[in-house]
Structure formats: structure tokens, C-alpha cells
Amino acid sequence: MNTTLKERKEKALEIMKELDIYLPYRDGFKKENNVCFYEGFGGFWVWQEPELETKMKEIEKEYNSTCYAITHEYTEFGECYDFLLITDYKEEWDTIVSEYETYHTAFAYVWNKDDDTCSELGDVLIQSFGGGIKRIG
Q1: Residues with Cβ < 8 Å from 58, sequence gap 6 or more?
Q2: Local structure of 15: helix, strand or coil
Q3: 10 Å Cβ neighbour count for 125?
Q4: Which one of 7, 15, 28, 61 is CB 3.0 to 4.6 Å from 3, fit for a cystine?
Q5: Interval 105-125: pLDDT, tens
Q6: How far is CA 94 from CA 8, 22, 47, 104, 135, in A?
Q7: For 123-127, which contacts have Cβ atoms below 8 Å and span 24 or more sequence positions?
Q8: Distance between CA 73 and CA 131 in Å, rounded?
Q9: Taking the chain, what is the end-to-end CA distance rounded to the nearest angstrom?
Q10: Quick one: which H or E segment has residue 43?
Q11: Cα gap 125→137, rounded to integer Å
């Protein structure tokens, strides 16, 4: 299936709104294609981290996808970055919202910076709070 960048970006903005991401970060993505990188619930522009921005562009190209947010965490198996993606496949576009509307399932490429062989595509559980997000599972 071939979706357009415009279709993927519109879906990303819809999900960002559903995640209750801080409006200036949504506007930055909408107007200038800026992606926000979240450390805990606090956000920064990905262009402030050149290595991360380069990795994001590689993933977008390899998977014909659009990254709309990135989370970061340290786990027992390594330092991980979760690139939340809108892929070329519309069946992967859905997110699941809990009854409290603060937990969401999102499709992501999880990059294990410490052991790249452990990197993979799949669903991650995201928590929204105060305009920011973080991975919780």
C-alpha cells in the first residue's frame, strides 16, 4: 500500500491530539515537520540531538514511515529510544485508548542503542501527562 506523506502526517497529528501532546509541539510538527523527543514527560526538539535525528531519518526511509514523536528510557536490556511511527500500512495506524484516556498503544520502532540486534518494530504502551508522553510498557 502506498500512502502519501500528507496522509501519514494527518494521521500523526490526529494521534498527537489523542495523546494530548502539548499544542506547540503539535504545531511544530504540523508547520515545520519538527519532531519532539521526550525525556520523561518533558519534550525537546529532535534536531537538538543530531545522532537521534539521523537515526530517525534512517528509520523513516527504511520503513517508508513518518515519525511523530520519540521517547527514551533505560531498561534492564539497554538504553532504548521509541520512534512512534505512521507506516505505509493503514492497518497499523490504530491506537488503543484505555478507559482513563491516559494510556495508549502506539506503533513504534524501538532502537536499543546498547545492542542494535535487539531493536524491533512493534507496539508500545504510552502514558500521557501534562502535554508530554513516556513509554511505560
Answers
A1: none
A2: helix
A3: 13
A4: 7
A5: 999 999 999 999 999 999 999
A6: 12, 21, 27, 10, 17
A7: 124/71, 124/82, 124/84, 126/19, 126/71, 126/84, 127/102, 127/103
A8: 18
A9: 29
A10: strand 42-45
A11: 5
- Grid cell of 107 as nine digits: 506503533
Say which residue the cell 545522532 belongs to.
51
Measured between alpha carbons, how far is 105 from 96 in angstroms, rounded to an integer? 5
Question: Which triple of cell numbers denotes residue 37?
Answer: 523527543
Contact between residue 109 and residue 96 where contact means Cβ atoms under 8 Å apart = no
d(CA 46, CA 12): 16
Tell me if the pTM is above 0.90.
yes
Distance CA 31, CA 43 (A): 17
Instruction: Match 495523546 to its residue by C-alpha cell.
Output: 19
58-91 pLDDT, tens digit per residue, is 999 999 999 999 999 999 989 999 999 999 888 7
CB 29 within 8 A of CB 37: no
